[in-house]
Amino acid sequence: MKAILINDDQSLTWGETASLTPGPREVLVKTKATALNRADLLQRKGLYPPPPGASEIMGLEAAGEVVACGEDVQHLRVGDAVCALLEGGGYAEYFVRDERLVLPKPEGLTWEETAAIPEVFYTAYLNLKIEGKLSPNERVLVHAGASGVGTAAIQLCKAWGNPVLTTASQHKLEHLTPLGATQTFDRRQEGLFDAIKQYTTQLPLQDDEEAKGVDVILDPVGAKYLDNNLRLLRKRGRLVLIGLLGGAKAELNLGLCLRKRLRVVGSVLRARSFEEKYVITESLKRDIWHLFSDKTLKPIVYKTFPIEEAEAAHTLMASNENIGKIVLSFP
User: Fold this and answer.
1) Using the 8-state DSSP alphabet, how is residue 295 labeled?
2) CATH number belonging to the domain at 132-266, selected among 3.40.50.720, 3.40.50.300, 3.40.50.1580, 3.40.50.2020
3) What is the pTM of this model?
4) pLDDT digits (tens, 9 = 90+) for 217-245
5) What is the DSSP secondary structure assignment for residue 101, as one 8-state letter?
6) Which residues, including other chains, have CB under 8 Å from residue 268's CB and lie 6 or more apart?
7) What homologous superfamily does CATH list for 2-119+272-329?
8) pLDDT per position as a tens digit, 94-123
9) Are the C-beta atoms of residues 39 and 220 closer than 8 Å to each other?
């Protein structure tokens, strides 16, 4: 089969690689589309190797049609339209996945839209509901709201009825309000966190605590925002770190954590165990999968490239100009 391969000089080639055979509980899927993630750029540079046993080929999500089933597969059949979160292998003509980690293609969505779902909606759901313990009416701040994860998190908060504030570059903000953002903020504006805190005084209270602040923050920035994030959290607030774009080391104000009974949670998805991903997959099926078919949730596809043009797609992602997902389609 063919796949996007990384050359010694870190350039990309659409070339031949070994064929795949599904294991007993696995299905072999002919890929129709896959989507980019920032982790792909890091893996390409040798900075984010796949977990042990995972495919060396890039691609953390894909959608396609089942073409073969392992002998113990129980719930899927040849011809089923599916998508899946992957540890690697999405940039290839075929991928294999345990059937327990495969999700059905939502009705009414294209292959490209379907491929744009798994990584970002798994991440947003996991870190808002499971790690962030988000409760009804609690306030959420989503940094990098125009990213794939950001656009997914905003939509989930709207669907759940949670006020959601978000930061992004100025020219992207107008795209976030239609997705459900309660209020948007230019990430480069002076006094950003003061402006956010001041705005929160206008939000309805669900208790008699201090009006200022938010309850859950979803943050891919890291060190640069740490202190301001903690100061913005209300009592018993949760900061969920999902990236380190702004650095990996910062001073932690332990006194503030104690006084406000805060929780700082570090969260990754790719390296989680099969058991953990199975639990998340089942939760998605139960709680939100129907919301794609009824259009409450929608994957945001910024641009689609043919798989052979993965290099151009990576260049676009590196520019940070996209809103939502960049997708690669297969012939």
Assistant:
1) T
2) 3.40.50.720
3) 0.96
4) 999 999 999 999 999 999 999 999 999 99
5) G
6) 242
7) Medium-chain alcohol dehydrogenases, catalytic domain (3.90.180.10)
8) 999 999 999 999 999 999 999 999 999 999
9) no
